Amino acid sequence: MVRPETPKGVVLVLMPIGRDAATVAKLIERAGLRPVVCNTLQEVIENLEWVIEVVVVAEEALYGNNARVLEDWVGRQPPWSDQPFVVLTNRNEGGKFAAFRRELVIRLRNVGFLERPLQAITLQATVLSAERARRRQYQTRAYLEAQRGASAELERLVAERTADLERANSQLREEIAGRERAQAALLQAQKIEALGQLVGGVAHDFNNLLMAVIGNLDLLSKKLGEDARLHRLLDGAMEGARRGATLTQRLLAFARKQELKAQATDVRSLVEDMIGLIDRSVGPMVRIELHAEDNMPVVDVDPNQLEMALLNLAVNARDAMITGGVLTIGLSEQIVDIDDQLGVQPGRYVVLSVRDTGEGMDAQTLARAVEPFFSTKGVGKGTGLGLSMVFGLAQQSGGALRLESTPSSGDNRQTLASRCQ
What we know:
It is a single chain. The longest helix is centred in the middle third of the chain and has 104 residues, at 120-223. The protein is α/β, with parallel strands linked by helices. The strands form three sheets. A five-stranded parallel β-sheet has the order 2-1-3-4-5, sandwiched between helices. The protein has a five-stranded mixed β-sheet with strand order 7-9-10-12-11. It is 54% helix and 17% strand. It is rod-shaped.
């Protein structure tokens, strides 16, 4: 008798006639397997939903159309499964039984036949062989499930790694873009600083020369007689010298070398008092709107220079609106943190903005807008010192000037930030 080395699995036994089922079950149990005797074919199918190694069934239990029920279950097996059936036959010969057995092979696929009467060793060896084959199928299923699990885990890890790499690349791109912006800002600041040193030195020396010229012209005016023609010539020379002095003051403002008389200033009152002057300066084709927050804090700034700066910003806005438009003056309080783009120290600031609906500037023009003597206006229509003076005032007062503009956008903004007391 075959004696297995280790305990084996479950064997379903269906032999509805006589005591054959009990005899076969005892032989299977002696082989080390666990027999489960079923009374009907439906009971066999219900048990097949569990882990079953072999089905031992008598031929007479399948004769007729009964095999079709098992055929449906066999057809629903997963791809890895090939349930083994051991069919116990009788010594019935003839074409009818031969055709039935061929049909069983087609319907049940994995079928082995044993003819009765049986020898114990033959039945046990056949069942054990079928059980080993079924065990390998279960091992294949476990391997496939492990492969699927490993594949899913690999896909998950690849997805996580891809996401990590994408985040790293995104962060790297942001850092590169930030470094490029910082480098561009540094180069621009170095450029403006170099221009400021050059312009400040020239303006200072030129201003000293003009003071000498103005002083001599003033002395000369006291020694002239009643000749009206000479007085007109002298007045023209004096006016030219004063204009030159005004230009040098603007250059010194850009270079941050002018003498400011900073004092606590109510910017809202200053702006409201200037609305009439600005209205006359921009003309009837421009509508002025003022949007100011209540309870604005005071700032330390030279009020005269701030008035001139606001007037310059308004005139620039007017020149951008060739056919007229809306000039919006805004006043607000802003808390600046360490990451603010204005480039100023953290703290409380009053923000004065002048927005127009005119033609904008491209990026190249915007980058040079505060350079002294740079102007997009025609010859004789501007000195190119308006924004440079505002820039110098903002820097010297501990604030900042920011320009925002795009071509044909209809929304251009000049923002001046001044630190609160």
